[in-house]
Amino acid sequence: MLPETRIPSFDFKTLPTADVSPDDVALMHELFDACYREANHEHLDKSLAVLRHVTFAHRDGKPAAFALADSLIIDLPRLPQTTLTRGGLCCVLPDFRRHGLFGALMARSIGAGEMRSPERMLTAGRMAHPGAFRMLAVRPGIVPKPGVPPTAWQQEVGQAIADSYGVGNFDPETFVCVGSGKPIGYPLMEVKAEEHEWQVFEPVDRDRGDALLGIAWNPDPPEGWEKASA
After folding, report:
1. pLDDT tens by residue, 85-143
2. Which whole number is the average pLDDT over 79-90?
3. What CA–CA distance (Å, rounded) separates 106 from 129?
């Protein structure tokens, strides 16, 4: 199980996305608008239909944040019955940032799913900025990796995970999830990134609504994962 972050000053509510009310959806749209310029509500609604859990955070009765994520047991190419955690959109209002909410929200949404205690699990997320990718890039077996083309096996797994997200156009050579032609949204507070961190994002067109699929292992990748002949 993922470690649970305890933040006493916040109240959390985790729901299956199938059970969210119209008021819940309206609140998510409101928080999305407050955190992103040109927030694409269609993207959020599609994510609600794909990912299985959402966690809300309130402080003193006022909305502070939400995060979409889940975990499931899935058959992937050469990886039967793999525990996969999928991260989704997370919006934290500016007044409540730097309180550890991102990790607390994601842990709750992921932990509400088909989590078990496997020897190894795969983590995935779609990101449009190196600041978000940074947290995944430090994990073992990360794909994509700057200057390292994905192996055939990695491309097959990447395609299967993109399919699970409902991505209609995925480039397995770059791990770019090609967008709908509309931006997902531009964060109102950009996180600074180093020049080398942008390398894997070079083919990502944010104006088109692209995102980069990142996948990594915990605690380590399976044998042959990083071999070109795999």
Report:
1. 999 999 999 999 888 899 999 999 999 987 666 779 999 999 998 988 988 999 999 99
2. 95
3. 18
- Banded model confidence at residue 79, pLDDT cuts 50, 70, 90: very high
Cα of 45 vs its chain's centroid, Å: 15
Query: Smallest Cα–Cα separation from 7: which of 109, 117, 107, 136?
Result: 107
Find out whether 177 and 167 touch, Cβ atoms under 8 Å. Answer: yes
33-58 burial string, b = 16+ CB within 10 Å, else e?
Answer: eebbeebbeebbeebbeebbbbbbbe
CB atoms within 10 A of CB 17: 19
Report the distance separating Cα 38 and Cα 173, nearest Å: 29
pLDDT of the residue at 196: 87
Q: Residue 170 is inside which H or E element, if any?
A: strand 170-171
Q: Where are the domains of the chain?
A: 11-218
Report phi then psi at 24, rounded to 5: -60, -45
pLDDT (average), residues 194-202: 92
Class of the CATH domain delimited by 11-218: alpha beta
Bridge partner residues of 122 (DSSP): 84, 217
pTM over 0.85: yes
- DSSP class of residue 189 equals S
The 8 Å CB, 24+ separation contacts for 45-50 are 46/166, 47/88, 47/89, 48/17, 48/20, 49/17, 49/166, 50/88, 50/164, 50/165, 50/166
